Automatic annotation (TrEMBL), chains A, B:
The keyword Hydrolase applies. The keyword Nuclease applies. GO terms for molecular function: 3'-5' exonuclease activity; endonuclease activity. NCBIfam families: sbcd. Belongs to the SbcD family. Residues 267-355 form the Nuclease SbcCD subunit D C-terminal domain. It holds the Pfam family Metallophos. One of its GO terms (biological process) is DNA replication. Residues 1-217 form the Calcineurin-like phosphoesterase domain. Heterodimer of SbcC and SbcD. It comes from Parashewanella spongiae. This is Nuclease SbcCD subunit D. Keywords: DNA recombination, DNA replication, Endonuclease, Exonuclease, Hydrolase, Nuclease.
Amino acid sequence: MKFIHTSDWHIGRQLHHQSLLDDQAFVLEQIVFLAKAHKVDAVVIAGDIYDRSVPPANAVALLNDVVTQLIQDAKVQVLMIAGNHDSHERLGFAASQMSSSGLHIIGPLTSTVSRVQLTGKNGDAIFYSIPYAEPSRVRSLLDVEVSTHEDAMQVLLKQTTQDDSKGLPKVVVSHCFLDGGSESESERPLSIGGADRINPDLFKPFDYVALGHLHGPQYKGAEYIRYSGSPLKYSFSEINQNKSVTLVELNQQNKPPSIELLPLSALRDVRVISGFLNDVLEEGKADQNKDDYLMVRLQDKHAILDAMGKLRNVYPNVLHLERSGLMSESSNIEIKKDHIKQNEMDMFSSFFSQTTGDELSDSQQTFMKQLLNGLHGAEE
Amino acid sequence: MKFIHTSDWHIGRQLHHQSLLDDQAFVLEQIVFLAKAHKVDAVVIAGDIYDRSVPPANAVALLNDVVTQLIQDAKVQVLMIAGNHDSHERLGFAASQMSSSGLHIIGPLTSTVSRVQLTGKNGDAIFYSIPYAEPSRVRSLLDVEVSTHEDAMQVLLKQTTQDDSKGLPKVVVSHCFLDGGSESESERPLSIGGADRINPDLFKPFDYVALGHLHGPQYKGAEYIRYSGSPLKYSFSEINQNKSVTLVELNQQNKPPSIELLPLSALRDVRVISGFLNDVLEEGKADQNKDDYLMVRLQDKHAILDAMGKLRNVYPNVLHLERSGLMSESSNIEIKKDHIKQNEMDMFSSFFSQTTGDELSDSQQTFMKQLLNGLHGAEE
């Protein structure tokens, strides 16, 4: 059984109000290509298929297109679960009418954990799917006393560990937050205060654990307990992540699987550029990837008229501009209460050094004194 | 080939802000029952499956439930098309992955009209499905010059008339407005000014035409060119309609099918009650169907404190209250410009007769004169 593990497609997502649908179509096309090239038996998507519970119609059309290519053209089985961004009922509509075609959508959590035997050219495997669920949902569904995500997961996993897979490898697909996992800025917290963290050891009894939620590829507890990460960078905090899908080949039960990361390339990368405006503009002329999604940090210390407009003449997809040159190097600027007791000259010196990082020069001090004296003279 | 033709389920619809989901579940359950009882081969739903392009999650869950019962339990094929209320992309998601299970959803119109051969115990039939489409959509999709719904339908039907059904009966499923059809208040107009009307004769070359859009059951042009109507009364304008589904048994090609209307009963009927408040309340005590959805027309001519509250003590689902007693019998009240020239006594008499339907009595006239004189006295 050979499959691609991916997650967090977030189809329909925007980056700083910029639609990413073209970028998503481009990267999902690669996943279809990789599925064919590696002759996988299945593609498993571990939740957050869409970005919103009500995805826009063109996002639905894109997923429809990708699924049809995988199932009909590539003859690859597809298994997907609902994440915390998805509407479980909407995603799960008519799921049982699709399964005979090889499309397995697990929308709302049910009291018996979904168990699907996927067919592999070199042996089948059992996939247990646990879509994202609040502890309260597990509590009412199974009539058990659970208050944390970990408690809830423990109860659900108990069903799957007890299940007899007849010697076939066991895979768990879930959308949750493993304790110690590295977050990015583009994930929506599952709960406040850490009650969403789950001990990775809970997943040790399985042959592979295909997780979704965290957007950086990583594993916790064991190499086979993994997040594939999202296929695209969904925030500027992810600029150094290498996005990929995970190619998994299961061996016999209780033997570690082969795992390989297959890199994905983006239609437009997400990058941060720092420098002085003129340098940035100059370098931009020769930049091969002018249409990347950019955050630009300008080091210039003086006011610039329409910096965004000038940058977009060269880089059309500058999405965010930071004037780091106008801030002191210390990012924590505290305005102390004492300041209101300072005289105007002291206050201005202090403001100047905080915002520029430099002290006032002698000539600047003289100029300011003259200016302040002039103002006070005018008042009297 | 024996099938049930129904349409305009509008799952998720409200009636005067009252959710109808329980009522819809109740009546759809009957359709499942009738499908089993009459051993039909298929259930055909001619559009407006949901009431809104983004149906609430519990509406999706209800449709999922009904479809699963029909396909899995009753082994009945289901064919549904998108109407003008549905989101074609959302409804049509993964449609090709469902068709092998016997669930045929035709979401967005495609350049080749959908052609599905449904299996019948006594012979198959070909179903051509034309989901609701604006003429502009047909224009861009097929690159033809059409401006009206009729032009567009003519182009689409041309494909189906030319198609060789190999002697099998031909059924068209569509969501449109036939010229001369009777409207209810609960349909959303397809366009303004009559450009949505289609000549029923266009549909004559087929063996049965299963239409949706109009909420009252009716046929136009020929008995086999039919609207099944909605399964529930979705406005007070439908109180006298008998809601039903249409049972169709096709014979050989070009022979008229057998058609029978199977009545549906509602969990709560939609009714109008007229009378004086005390009579209405008195009769309500013995009313077996107190929880029907009611519009109450009160004939009382005097002000009543909290009439709605009093009525709802007896009839909990009074949704609308009309004080017909406070209006003259002529519903067209015209305030003529001449009125501003009348003196106060004439104006009041005229107002009194318009709103009550009665003339001022002698004693009322005397009282008003005294009142007006008193007011003028106070002014001077």
